[in-house]
Amino acid sequence: MLGCVGSRDKTGLQPSTVQPCSILFQSRSADSISFEFCIQATTATPFLTSQVTCRFEFLEEGTFGSSWSILHNAKWRPAGTPEVVFEGDEEAIPAVYASSPGLGPAPIRLAGTAPAPGVDDAVGADETAPSEDRIRRMRCSVDIPDLKAEKTYVFRVLARSGEREQHNISNEVKFRTSQRPTLEAGHLKFLGRTADSIEVSLRVADPEGAPISACEVQFRPDSMMSGWDSAMLDVCQSTRASSLLDSTESPLWKGTLCKLLGNTNYKMRARAQNAIGWSWEHTPDVVYCTSDKPDAPEQVVCLRRHPDSATLSFVVKDPDGAPVTSYTAFVHGAFGYSLHAQCKFRSVPAVVGSDGRYHSATRKGLCIVQGLQPETEFCMRISSHNAVGSSRQMSQPVQFRTAKCPSTVGEASVQVGPKAFALTWEMQDPVGAPIVQLQLEYSADSVFSSWDTVDAKPVALLTDSGDNLDINRLAAAVVVSRVTGASSVVRRWHVQIDNLERESGYQLRARARNSVGWSPTYSSTINTRTSDRPPQAYGVRCRSRHPTGVWLEATVDEVLGTSAVEGIAVEACGSFSWIEVQDVECKRSDGGAAPNKSNWSVFVPLGLTPGVTHELRLWAVNLFGRSSKPSLNCTCKTSDKPKQPDKLTCIHRLPHSLYLEWNVPDPEGAPVRRFEVQYRSDQAFTSWHTAACADTQRQAPPRECAWRCVLEELDAMTTYRIVVRALNEVGWSDCSSEAAFDTSGLPQLTGPCPDVFRVTDPSAATAAAAMREASDASASADDLPGLPADGASVMVDLQLEDPDGAPVLACMMRGKDSGPWTLALRRPDRPSTAPQEGGRNMPISRWCAILPWLPEMQRCTVSIKAANAVGWSLTKDHRAIPIRQGIGRLQQAVSDLVATEEHTSLLEASEDLLLGSCSTLDLVSAEVRRTLVLQEEAQQRVLASLHEAASRDDKAYLTTLSLHGNHLGQRIQVLREVAQHLDPEQSAFGENHGAELTAQLQEAMHRQTIVQDAQKAATVLALLLQGYIWLETAWRTELLSMMSDIAKARNSIPESGGGVLMQWIAQSQAWSESFRAKVGEALPEGLARAAQLLATLASGRKLAQLDYVRADLEACLTLVSAAERQLRKLRHSHRILCAAEASKSHDFEQKGALKKIEATALGLVTMLVLPLPGTMELGALHIGMLWLSGDTSNSHIAVEHPTGQPLAAMLERLGSSPPPRSAVILAGWASGGHKGVVLVHNATARRITVHVLSGEQETFASKVGSKFAEAHPYVRGVAMAMSQKQGGDSVAVITPTDVALIQVPDQKNIRLEFSYGTSGHVEKAVGRASVCQGAAVSFMCLDGGVQISNSDGDNFVVEDSTIRVVNNDLASVAVSLYWPVELRKHFESALSVTPLKPGEVKHLPLPQPCIGCIFELEVRREGRKCEYSEVRPGQCLVIDSAG
């Protein structure tokens, strides 16, 4: 509250010129508070510090009716250097002050004065500002004593600078004195414990101004009616010092509560005290326990046993803070467990932690129990003790027995001699008390004889690794066994008694002794005699069985000092007596036998008696005779017949084969040699047939009881019932139970409905429209397959189940009942499986196809049929299938391809997606390779069986195996040949490969029986597959490449004058698309037949019934020959287009129906007008020929070559190089001799007549004259004669491949008329072309089937007296040789007729003299019209495929 400045109050006092402000807390204690405040001038005039007086008033908050009281004992003082005002400074205090934390506005240096010291430059409490200095602002501090603790006070400051001034009052502030400690957030923390103490700690913060001086812990047992005890905690000085530096860290108080009860829970709480007093509250109660009693020892076991002591081991766990210090043992007696004092304990020392305390840990200990009775069973328990007390219970009881006396001596091995006995025992020492003596007693077998004794000696230590005869090692082992008392040893003891009576009976018995005593009884008494004969054989057993006998094993003790055992005699039990077995084979095998013993192996021949039990006994024989007693009887049997085969299953099936597996164990001694498999079709009245099954083979361990074989020469789609029986050396087993299996069948179209979605391609629609526009306008949509009208197609995604052993190889789809079939492609997705009856899983394959020409509707019908090696399935129709948009994985894959921007349309992306799929051809090729692998595996099985049969000399089975192996070798050779033909790396297709295939197919078709044997069948299969491979790969690739080049060349042809070429290109493309569709329809049929033939080859069936493949062979021949013809025409056309690419083409006017009607009318008029004889007859003949003959103008063009380029090279590109004598003309032309002439090149196979028409433009009179010339031959002849008479050399006759220079008038536009024939025999004009002077023109025929060249391209020299004829056609031709038309008489026969087969080359002899002559050749093809050519001697006629 500030006083008013510049006015008086009612008391007459002036307003104060100083104002107190900015009161800030400084410190507090239990009874005082210190704070700071500022005094500043309220006017522009500074004040003197000596004149300032302050008064302090306070008010106790929370006291009812309290009022402001004046603090008389408050001490205040300046707390810094005040701002000094220099003399002459009359400026006002600046209005802007920089803030200073806790002190309000900081001193400001006035303008034009020296800087004043800042208020932050504090001085000590005794440093005050000069009293006479005039200042504007001063900081002060005040101490308020004699306050009440834990109280809140309200303070205010009153100040003035003179007695005549009124006090100015500061703002009110609240401060509180120090308070008691607060323990709300603190709690006692457990540090450690012992049996009688617990160490705890407490972290509590010091209240401000009143630090904690003491901490008390109150504790009592956690039980009712218990009183509190207390203990003081000590402060950790390091934590208190840290708390003074860091206010966030509290001091730590620690202490130990002593004299507590062990294993007792104590409830604890704490409180703190400072100068004000104890804290009002305690920390939350916590419960901590002193150390517990130990648990009972665990894992108590007996380690060692001795006659009067034992050693036990145990594990004990120390409680936290009170480790186990002692143990007690208790033994079970008649009245329960009692303390056993004679015990010594040893244990691992307790571990002290890093903090000096004992923590819980597990230790091991030993208890040595003494003062026990030998051979006594004891049960003991152990308890543990620590500072708290004993364990609550004892350990689990452990039972043990102290060392015992030796057991009764066992059976001894007795070796008899003429005057001595040698006995050997194998004795195991008792644990902890080894045997020290083994005593033998013997006496004569008489009434009054006495027992004599002799001690045996240990001679060997018996271990798992063998006998150890080292005496030192034996003694060490006994010592170790006695000391450790944990294990025993087995020793061999030996004793020999000499100087006995010969052939006398004796009784023998033995007993053993150790530190406990003698064994309880003597051993069994042995009655034996000294003898020269061997003792009784023992240990007789049947070692192995064989078909005609058994091998027995027996052991015989050797006689001491006399002849050794020489053999074994065997007796068999007969009906009434024992009968000695003859021809017994005895073998002595001493390996592994004990000393003075002999082991014998005896083969006893018993004959082929399967199932008969034989009882045998053995006699040991030496030089003195047989043993006195035979051995014990031994019962045995010879080998049995094989058991009945079981678990007969079919593991794999093919169209004509079944892969079978069954189980049959080998009888002992007579393993199974081979099997007999019988089968019959599952029909009534069918008989059983025995299969060869020569490749039967045993499986590898651990399935050596399983056998497999392949049953071949079966019918497809047939159920067979099969039984198997086994043969060994004993005989045949019983037949197995009948099992029925099916061979592979036709594809079953039982899958789900296919997924159909639309693929719309605007670019395809545009291309279709362009193709129709370039082609015949009258052509219907069905004439141009593959060109959808609206660019819309559908893609079908189908799932098919592959029959077991005969996967689907071809799938055909069509979109409507009468539409064309489309070959589908198999997607390369990983096949899934579908469960079928019998537990088999049928693989599922995915097939895709693009179907054109579906109607614009929301649903469609798709017909499907599939083929495998068995045949074609029935057609299945899926009707009303919804056409989806953007549904399905296939549609997503197509969309992803389009998204990559590598494809411009959905249709293109769909086709590219199918390119990565497997075609039918790929599947059949894979089937060939798979079949080859199966046959090679079968050959390996047969070779293994051959080796096995040869080892046992089974001649009958060897013959069967050899025959089957030969068949397999032939099949593998055939299949390898087929696979080699199908290998793309090894079967490269040349340019004439189609012609070679055609010739081979024709040769196969000419045979009366196509598949006479396996070799012929392989040839047919290879031809079928090669034909379709060539159509699918080489032909299609070259066709597409040429069509692409033709399209590029077409773009470079000028629009004017290129109509014939454009039309011809369109027709070629339409034919190619149509032919591709035909190939696609015929390909699955042929490949399905090939797969059937392949299955027949693999199964070895008869080939006579496969003559139906002739139709497929004929279809393949038709396709290959047609494709080769078209390919050759395209090559020829490609050359023409490449030559005409930079040239100008002149089309000839076509003669349609109106032109023919016009010519007919003019011809009739001419017939009536002309008064010449024969006019009527010749005119009528000409009119008839006009309507019967075709229009050749659309198959001929005149190509005008560009100037400035080598003419010879361009003519060579046309495939019609001029003869050598034309080199002078071409050289002159190249040098620029173009003036007044036109060069014409004849690129056809006949002579042509070139007529230069007069006049640059065609007048009305010339048009009328030309029409009359076309209408009647007389008019044409008269017109040509008049033209020659008026214009000089305006007509030129040019032979094939030749060039001629024609004189032309000096005018801009020259009109040339081209006709076939020579002077006097000119045919009707083909067409006219307009050129200019200096032009070079080639007259060409686009679809000619023959071509003339001056060399055939093979660098052959043709004699001048012959004509070389090359037949490159795929069919046989006949070539007739005539004189030229001007020299030939009417109805004159041919000079010679020469037949030529496909690919044949012949030289036709010519009549002499022939130099300078020209001859006419007629080429006749079956079913086609004749073609004519005019050839000079020395030239070559090449016959290509006709269109």
Walk me through this protein's architecture.
This protein is α+β, with helices and mostly antiparallel strands. Helices cover 22% and strands 33% of the residues. Strands 54, 55, 56, 57, 58, 59, 60, 61 and 62 form a 9-stranded mixed beta sheet that branches. Strands 29, 30, 31, 32, 33, 34, 35 and 36 form an 8-stranded antiparallel beta sheet that branches. It has a 7-stranded antiparallel beta sheet with strand order 14-15-18-17-16-19-20. Residues 1-8, 83-132, 762-791, 835-839, 886-890 and 897-916 have low confidence and may be disordered.
Radius of gyration: 64 Å
- End-to-end distance: 124 Å
Instruction: Give the helix level as a range of percent.
Output: 10-25%
- Low-pLDDT residue intervals, each spanning 5 or more residues: 1-8, 83-132, 762-791, 835-839, 886-890, 897-916
Quick recap of the structure?
The chain contains 17 helices and 79 strands.
Secondary-structure blueprint:
Elements lengths: L17 E11 L4 E9 L5 E2 L4 E8 L8 E2 L4 E4 L20 E2 L3 E2 L28 E2 L1 E8 L7 E9 L7 E2 L3 E4 L12 E5 L4 E6 L10 E8 L7 E7 L1 H9 L6 E6 L7 E9 L12 E4 L8 E8 L4 E9 L7 E8 L2 E4 L3 E5 L13 E9 L7 E9 L12 E4 L11 E4 L4 E8 L8 E8 L7 E12 L2 E3 L2 H14 L5 E8 L7 E9 L12 E4 L8 E9 L2 E9 L9 E7 L4 E3 L4 E4 L8 E9 L7 E10 L2 E2 L7 E4 L8 E8 L4 E6 L10 E8 L7 E2 L6 E2 L7 E6 L7 E9 L11 E4 L12 E6 L1 H13 L17 E10 L8 E5 L7 E2 L1 E2 L5 E4 L5 E12 L6 E9 L8 E9 L4 H11 L6 H10 L4 H32 L3 H28 L10 H14 L7 H39 L6 H41 L9 H32 L3 E3 L6 H17 L5 H14 L7 E6 L5 H7 L9 H8 L6 E6 ...
